[in-house]
Structures
1.
Amino acid sequence: MQDVLTIVLAGGMGSRLSPLTDDRAKPAVPFGGKYRIIDFTLTNCLHSGLRQILVLTQYKSHSLHKHIRDGWSVFNPELKEYITVVPPQMRKGGKWYEGTADAIYHNMWLLSRSEADYVVVLSGDHIYRMDYAAMIEEHKRTGAALTVACMDVPKEEATAFGVMQTSSDKRVEAFSEKPEQPATMPNDPTKSLVSMGIYVFDMKTLQEALNSDAELESSSHDFGKDIIPKLIDTHGVYAYHFGEETGRVAKDSYWRDVGTIDSFYDANMDLLEPVPPMNLYQSNWGIRTYEPQLPPARTVPSATGNEGIFINSIIANGVINSGGSVHHSVLFSNVRINDGATIADSIIFGDVTVGENCQLANCIIDKHVVIPDGTVIGLDKAQDAERFHISENGIVVIPEGYVFAE
């Protein structure tokens, strides 16, 4: 699709995902045993035929830049294909990106240099699979100035999204960002139609909208709050229902904003369902990532004769389980589990060592942590709260590189 430029917004702080985002951008947070969150958006681009991609970064972006360099240097510049990381260039003055629309406005020079007729705007911090090509084709067919991907959610959850009202031909008639009283769907008063933050613009429409918005001091320079409501009054804005794709991706309609510890934890646990709501194993829609060359995972009998056991878990390469027991958990690469340790309902990032006779439950362990023998985490909230962050649903989070007191 040489007539399409793709922009991935990947500069958010992700403060609600702290402490996992204390030292990395939200799109760079590990997910599902081997991936980074941004891999899902970039994989969708790859399979959808989008080959001109700008990734706008900002907050603590080093690990994100490194991951894209190592895992996504797959396009051929000689064919005008690229994935280019674009940190703030200060071309519009000495400011950082101050909103989703402002981030693109700061890079208007890249839009003007592009030969594309259409611009796809995506977020780099959602977990889903989608064929963008089908959405782009519908955008062209309807002659829309802007097409917004949407999905229906329970009314009580819609307050966290931009809520749309549409006509019978899917034209958007009203848009309200995070309303206290969301409008409901005509055929189902229990649900609301919400924006997924996935947009297809005509290039000219986007440029004009961003230039006009930049002149308004009262604007928050956000697509949902400022850009979309104004375009509805002056242009043809249409809704595209997620899951209606006719492309190769399975129509599972799975989409998650993993913006909090609990939503991140739940999305990982979804992968452990007997029939996961999102199938990572669809052969023609594989999720691409970077993974170091490591030996296969294995179990090892301990010196006491205990066998390493894995039950209903995701296990990455390089994991060694020497006499421990792992149940309903997600383990990233190079995790070491020692004799008598038990791990349940947990997520363990890479390069973590679990000492002998540890008991871990309902927790997330970030990278480069050595857990001393006999440590108990996730079974005593009062004790855990003295040392660690605990989510609303009781998930205990140990930050990267945490050193336990002797």
2.
Amino acid sequence: MTRRARTWLGAAGVLGVAVLLVTAFLRMPEFGGALHGYRDLALPAAIARATPNLVSSVNFDLRALDTLGEETIVAAAVVGALSLLQPSPAERKRLRPQHGHVLPVVKLAGYVVLPVTLLLGIDVVAHGHLTPGGGFQGGVVLATGWHLLYVSGSYPALVRLRPIDWCEYAEAAATGLYVVTGLTGLLAGGAFLANVLPTGRFGSLLSAGTVPVLSVLIGIEVTAGFVVLLSRFLDQALIPAEGT
């Protein structure tokens, strides 16, 4: 796809989003109202399902179907970005990873922080139903943490350790398993994405029913999607302009 076609297509998307945002803002309820029905219903539901993190309870239990839509939007955005940013054969021939000078302290910081960031991302995903975090947040931490190798000036190492093909499979599998979990709830509980697993003890890692399961699936999908997405952004950034 040519640069001009990408620009026009991007402008059309921005215009559509702008129309939606303006429409939403014009129809928002007044600020400071006394009616908080969602709050009054969400808190008892989270306690009943042994989910200390109220946000995760809302995302993966009360409105799990909406979260499925958001997950699908992320997947569609990744597919769209891949279509737009896929390097052409001519661009691939000019792809030259830059080897600029990187301060030793930056390299050391990147290599030291990388495993810590990955462990933090896993913790955020695994404990998303207990403490602040969850699949979306942890997935972003994992995907960006992986690219500390690039910040450290080791793009070849990033290419070797970045399993693009596996990430593409993982993103699709996580999205499909989310739907399978929903169908399980439909068969066992009579409603799509019904929370049918044992809720366990309040504050325990194995608790909250399907909430941690869906959170982990979202974490896998977001991590894989962002890794693939960032790979294409880096490819475009490393393609020198014509004549250089």
3.
Amino acid sequence: MRQWWQQGSPWVWLSASALLLCLGLFMALLLLITSKGLQHLWPAPLVQFQLTEQTEPELGRLMRRQDATDGMDRTLWLVDRGDSLQARDSSPAGRYLLITATELLPERPAEAVLVQMYDGRTLYAWRQPQRTADAFWLQTGTGEQVALPWEQVRAHWLPNQLSWWQKLQLYLQEWRHFLTAAPNQNPGTGGIFPAIFGTLVMVLLMAVLVTPFGILAAIYLHEYAGKNWLTQWIRTSVYNLAGIPSVVMGVFGLAFFVYVLGGSLDRLFYPDQLPAPTFGTPGLFWAALTLALLTLPVVIVATEEGLAKLPQAQRLGSFALGATQAETIWKVVVPQAAPAMLTGLILAVARAAGEVAPLMLVGVVKSAPQLPIDGQFPYIHLERKFMHLGYHLYDAGFQNPDTEVAISLVFTIGLVLLTLILLLNLSAFLLRQQLRRKYRLID
């Protein structure tokens, strides 16, 4: 036993157990987000319920099952009644009901129709046989007939008549609408395309800004700077910069980039538009620059570690063949250290795509009427505010009064955000593997 302790075996097993525990928790979280996120758009059947014998049957969608809290042995169902046929109910209190098993009718009417409106409303009613060229007719539980103009109806289907294959086709169509449409003014409705587009453009712009500065700084520190107190102070500053809270970096970006640099640009190039700011207001470019400064230490440290792993014999061999230091660095050192540089870029992209706190101060908004890239000259509008998936997730989870929709929507947006980060990292990973095979280097 003493020899076992002296060999360090307990620490090996402890480290392995901690690693397995972290991986297990991560996989459980990923499985939870995936399962909950994929359920959000699946077409569920509509059921009938009748509160009293004097009232007419109503249509609804079963949300979840729960036990009674009054001490009685009975099962309750939370039912989504949908929106009003006349106007959207601003309060979720009138939309959701707790019913007992006796109030839930066994029949699932085949003519029950679900209607999605362009304004974000979801309607449950009975379909009428007549279909005119300008209106879609529905019948409420009280027998009242309502005509909906076709230009207001986005989609409609009969949930209780769908086969599994039809549900899958409808599910994919709803996902396409969710990923390509703009959000509605009602919280939790519509699509998230502006948020996806804004996140992607911001991350790519941040990568373009941080990569050259991070690589050049790492090359200077490792290849040119001597081992003195100044170099040690610079490295310490870089390490401390990595520990600054992101919200503090957002405050710095707002004060320096937006007000100082942006205000100076307005006074130099846009004086005729003052006092209305052009660049002196939060926007895409300042958000990307703030995140570039936030992730700069990651790129510097990863690149410098890659440079340190290269054998010194390769540099000496290049010098022996008559190459200068600059030629050695750019033709021998940098190509072989490229995988480490891409490793730093992967870490920077993963962190930048998930940041929310600094973006709230330097450019992200709840709703942006215009995209930062469009067909209007000069086509790329760096001064515009933009939407972001991380902030959209925060807004859907904490600013939506409908908690039932918010919970499901948070998991769905989180799944999209994780997928986007995975695709960005996968692209950089494949490029890194290609460079590794080219130079036969494992860092």
